Every structure is written in C-alpha cells, then in structure tokens.
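Q: What does the assembly look like in three dimensions?
Context provided by user:
Components: three
Sequences:
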Amino acid sequence: MRRLFSKVFFILTVACIWEAVKAIGGYSDLLLPGVMSILRSLWLERIQIFHMTLFSLQIIGIGLLVAIVLAICATILAFSGRIFSEIITDVLAILHPLPGIAILPIAILWFGIGTKSILFVIIFSAVWPLINHFYTGFRSIPANQLEVGRNLGLSGLKLGRDIMLPASFPHILGGIRTGWARAWQASVAAELVFGAAGGNGGLGWFLYKKRFMMETPGVFAGMLVIVLIGIAVEYIVFTWVEINTVRKWKTIIN
Amino acid sequence: MYKKAQKVVVVLLLGLLATAFMAGCSGKSENSEVKLDEGLETIRVAKQFGLVYAPLMVAEKKDFFSKYGLNVQWKTLGSGGAVREAMAANELDAAFMGIPPFLIGCDKGVEAKIAAGYTVSPVSLVTYDPLIKSVKDFKPEHKIALPSPGSIQHILLAMELEKVMGDPNALDDNLVALPHPDGAQAMLSKKDIVAHFTTPPYLFEELSKPGYHMVLDGFDAFGGDFNFNVALVTQQYHDNNPKGYAAFVMGLNDVMNWVNENKEETAEILAPEFKIEKEKLLEYLESDGMNYTTAPYGIMGFANFMKESGYISKIPEDLQDIAWENVLAQIGKREGKPSTMEKIQWAK
Amino acid sequence: MGELLKLCDVTKLYKTSEGKEAVGVQHVSFTVDEGEFISIIGPSGCGKSTLLRCIAGFEKINDGNIYLDGTLIKKPGPDRFMIFQGLDQLFPWLTLKQNIAFAMKAVKAVKSDEIMQRAQNNLELVGLSGFGDYYPYQLSGGMKQRASIARALSVGPKVLLMDEPFGSLDAFSRKAMHHMLLKVWNKTKVTIIFVTHDIEEAIDLSDRIIAFAPGCILADIKNPLERPRVRETALYRNFFSELNGIFETNFKGIDLEFERLSAKKAKLISV
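A: Here is the predicted structure of the complete assembly.
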C-alpha cells in the first residue's frame, strides 16, 4: 500500500513538473504537449496503438525466436571444435558492437523494404548478445555437474536438456534479456528510419506517422507505450522468470 | 534503488524546468542581435536536394539576395518533416514545402505563412504493372511508394480515392514511405513496389522506360494547377524584419525570372551539383509542365479535403490566415464574382 | 566376499600442451573385493584421481582393461558412482530430494511411486532427514557432501568412487563426515574406493591402502588396525610411519618433477 502510494505520488510529481516546464517555457502543444493532451491522444488512438503494439511484439517475438535458434546453433558449433570457437569469438568481437540499425541499408538491399528487412535488423541486433551469453553460460557450467550427469548415463540431448540448460540458465536468461532489449530498440529504430510499409507497421511506424502529421502528443503517446511495454516486459515477465528460477536457486549473476 | 531513481528523475526534470525558464527569457534577445548586423538583414533558409530547388541553388551560387541587402544562411535538412520541426523550434525563418505539409504545420501551431508560390510541377503516380490502369486496380499486395505520410503525393492520392472509391484511406495499407531517389531505384529494379508517386526528374526517368505508365496525374486529382511548393516565412521574422522579408521575396522573384530566361546557363551552373550531364539537366529543366513561377496556385484547394478527411482540424477561414500581404495582393479581391486569380486558389 | 573390481595393466597417457607425452597412470593392476573400503593415497598430481576417473569411465584408457563383476568397463555408468571434492556437484536448481529423485529417474532403477520414499530414506541415512526441501545454496559444505553421497547411494552403485570428497571441508566437519561415511558403509556394505592425500584419513577409514606415486603403485598394504581406529596408540603411530616412510624414500628424487607435472595438470590433454 505504501509502495503504491509512493509510486502514485512520484508519477503525480513528474506530471506537475512537466506541466510547470510547459507553462514557464511557454511551449505550445507542438513542442511540449501537456500531460492531458498526451493521454487524450493515447485514448483516441488506442485501437491503432493496440494493433501496432501487437505487430511490434509479434515481429520481435519471431525475430527473437530465430535469433535464439541461431545462437544455440552457433554455440553448439563453437563447442564442436577449437577452430569454430575461435572463429565465433572473432566474429562476435567484430559484430557485437555494431548497432543493428547500422545494417538497415544492407538489409533493404538484400531483403527489400518490407517486414523482412526489419526482421533481419531485429535478428542481427539480438543474435550477438545471445551468442555471447550462451557461450559464456555453457562454458561456466561446473564440470562436476556435467560428470554427475554422465555418471547417471545421460548424454547428448538429455544431458543438454536436463543439465546443461538449467545449469547455464542464469546466462541464458541474461542473454534473452539483452536480446529482447536490443530487438525492441531495433524494431522501433528501423521503422522510424525508413518508415516501414503501410498496414504492416509497429510502434516505430506509429511514431513516424505522427511525426509527419506533426501530432506531437501522438509522438509522446507512442513513446509512452514503448516505455510502458519495456517496463512491463522487464519488471513483469523477466522478473517473474527470475524470481521463479535463478533467484530461487541463488545462481543469479550480475 | 527505486527511491534513488525517483530522486534522479525529479532532479532531471527540475533541471529541465530551469532550462525552459532561461530559454523563455533569452528567446527575444536573440532576434535583436540579428538586427544589429550593420544594416544587413539575415535570414535562415532551409533547402533540400532536388530539381525543384534549382532556382534556390542558382540564388545561392550567384548570390541573388545580397543586392537586396539580405544575407542568407542556407541550411540543408534531410526531410520535409525535419524542416517543419526546425521552423517550429525557431531554428529557421524561411522554408519551402508542399501545401499539405504546410497546412498540417499551420493546424498544429507552426506560425508561418506563404510568402510566395514556388513553382508548379507535374507530380504523378507511375506503375510498371500493365494491369493497373486506375487507382481502383491496386490489390492489397501492391505497394505504392511516396515520400511520407501527409505529403502532397499522399493527399493527391487520397483526393483521387475519395472521388473514385469514396474512401480517401482505401490504399493506406499499401503505402510505403520512401524518399524520391530510393523510390525511383526500387521502381526501376521492379523490387518491392509496383507504383511510385513522384516528381521530376524521377517522374520523367521512370516514364521514359518501356512499360512504365501513368496511373494518375496530380493535376487531374486536384482539378487544376497548384504550387508544388510554397515559400514560407515565420510570423516572427515577418513581423520583426520587414526589410528582410521584402528582400527575400524580391530575391525569389528575381532568381525565378532569371531561371526562366536562362535555362541553359542554369543547367551549366547546376550540372556539377546534381552530378549529371548539362544536356540531361537542361532537358529536365525544360520538360513539359514545369513552371518556374512565384505566383500562387491552388493554395486553398487542399484545405477543404484535408479537413474532411481528418488531416487537419479546421479550415483556414480566409486566405489571410495562410498567406502574407504580398501574396494576398497578387490574388486580389474582386467585388462581386471572384476573379480568375481568386478562383484558381481553390480546387474544382 | 568375492572379487568385484579388477584392473589389469591399466595405462593412461596424457600429452602436455607442447605435445610431449606425460604419464597419467602406467601399468597399474589390482583388484578390489566386494564390500571392501580401500584408499588410494599419494601427493597431489600423482595420478590417483586419474586412476579413479578411469574406473568411473570418464577417461578412455590407452592400454589394459578394467572389469566390474567380470564385465569390461567402456563408459561411465551408475554402477560406479563418483563423489567429487567440489561443493558444486549438486544441481542448484533442484532441492535435495529433487536432486536424488532426478538421479533415480535418470537411471530408471526405482519404481516411480517409491522414488520420494527412497529419497527420504537416503537423506536420513546421511543425517539430512529434515533438509529434503532445501536448495543446495542453503546448506553448509559438509551438508552438501552428505547430500551428494545420499544421491550417489540412491542409484544403487556397486562401487562408490570418492575423489578427496572431504578435501574442501574444515577439520571438525571432516571428522563428522568420517563418522557418517563409516556408518553408511556398515549399513549398505557398498564397496568404496577413496582417494586422499591425507594418510591419517586413509588409516581411519579403510581396510586397505594403496600408496600411489607418479603413475604407479608403490605399495598395497592391508590396514592392520582394529576398528574404530585410535590415533593415540603406538600401533597407529607405527603404521603411519610405515606409510609415510614409503613416500619419503620414494619421493626425494622426483619431488621436483612432480610439482612441474601438477602445475601443468590443467593444460594436459588426454590422448
């Protein structure tokens, strides 16, 4: 109850300061829309925002899934030979720091201007941190636990599923968390830069359209939704998974 | 942890508050600085890249404004959206844009009006699909490229759709926002898009290829001529710098006339800028339908439609709301029945 | 009591990272009877752990054969269960009971409706009856090792292979662990091969002691002392001196070689 009160108080404080900034600076709704006009825009556009959010989540979900599969393949490859692990480490060192959005021009050349390009950017953004975390995770599995597994006659898929997966789960979770954040950023950024395609657009495309219609309250409403979804996924989905796994097992990593 | 984050946010917002306060105080002093500039007026003008900006490029190259006592600070911006935002943020005094984006800006509180018409140019929807003869023939999978939502091309397409299909948004899900060069490239490689709503030189280039044909002529959709761009000057600049404003309008008239009289020399000056051959550029400059003029054409014609389709919240009550006095004087106000000049400001 | 485990001429070679061959275990032969408690002692890096890992099937041997109950050993199996020195051998994502149940399910040795009861019984055996629902992080080092033993016993191994299992514990808990292990051994009659570098630990626990030097057996001695062993007796001191003497005479010259090997142990590659 007290925490709820403190949060409500915090939000009200932010809203008041926001309005004060607007009043003192004498900004119009075009430059700094008021809290109420942002909320009104959010309400008026709720159906469109809902569909676009769904689209964004769907494309990010697909992208993240593909990236996870690719990362698993790359990690298995990295463990199947010294040469592969060296190659993958080098490729990782080169491509990990490259922001996904930087490859958008190439993506458009290869995959055209449709959803495929955005998907490619999302996969590219997410796959490197995933590989990085998966690889570290698998390497940090205690040898003893693996040998207990082998001692019990487990091998191959069973060893992977029953022991390697839960043993490296803290890193896997960390990887998916980073991957999600980067995929989310990439999807919004990609749509903002090149505007996506009409009916098939996510929240980035929403921002783009609102910008070109000079509906600043709509732009803020879109940003609010992006922030809220980010918070929701971080504090509801990931925290829930964390509480039920690594925090329960005390195998959490920082 | 959470408490700490709360405090940080509040401190940041308070900082913003202080900045806003200072910005509010210093806003006016900035303008007086401009005036102090030894009698020479200064104006900050945005230009973009494209054939339609040819007269402006000539003006910059041949320094057309200084003889009127005006010092122009040219700023190059990437997109129409950025130009409008820069105007709203008082980073620009004058800019050029299509009438629909200007009307959207007006509606949202950008304080600027039309100081001059700026060219009349063909703008058309082109396709390479032989089955598409009218806007009715587009299927859901057919993507149509145009520069951005709310652009003149977007509104022209919506106007036609309203007329033909009764729904201005019928093809909204088919639209792809692409800058002209990217759209032209996608069209010529027949990749991703089947149609492109564009302007010269891309328009001529696409139409010159076999199998590419026009689906919709912008003039037909509109029902008459209209300025492809209009020159805008902000309220603040217009009110505080009457001399600068007058010089800007004079310079524009001067260079526009010069280009009409000297197309060959214009091509010579600008060929290196556009990185194409002089002959090719001359061909473009002289292509059918291009009209280098500062006269206002169809400046009110988009407003009704845009209000009805929800792009703007209110129609400007009077020409005075969107144009400065020199434009109003050009149009005039005939007693009794409106004059031809008055009539052409409205779409049929 | 019949012969359970038989090692014939077992050789395990390693390569150093420079490619030179290093000996892990060389031509080792001995037998272990059913129910016997035997210790393998020697300084660290002498190959005693390697030998244990060969028996467990974790290492492919280069030469010789290992038989369990007359069957040739080729790969790891639950009939020879290993207890490691490290305190991280329990699965941290499972409670103690779940750890034990997981092992029983993996080897399919127990009917599923009996699993939880068996797990509880095994926890009682090692003195952890109230801790079945605890996660490993909630336990002390000694409790973790007890739980590991309970888990190992649950799959019904013929041999328990213990690789310095109490090496990470302090002296007090080690004493308690010895007590517990002997109790478990008495009750289950499981055969135990116990690797340690602590001579007293070996004397306290085992029936028979194999003294191991780099790669080979120095001595294979029956423990002459009565159980329970009492450290203060002259007999105990004499036996200790005898064992100690074996290492002192044999290790003067090879001490240095030994350290070199141990230092490089991490870099050794199995051949």
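Follow-up: The first strand of chain C starts at residue 3 and ends at 15.
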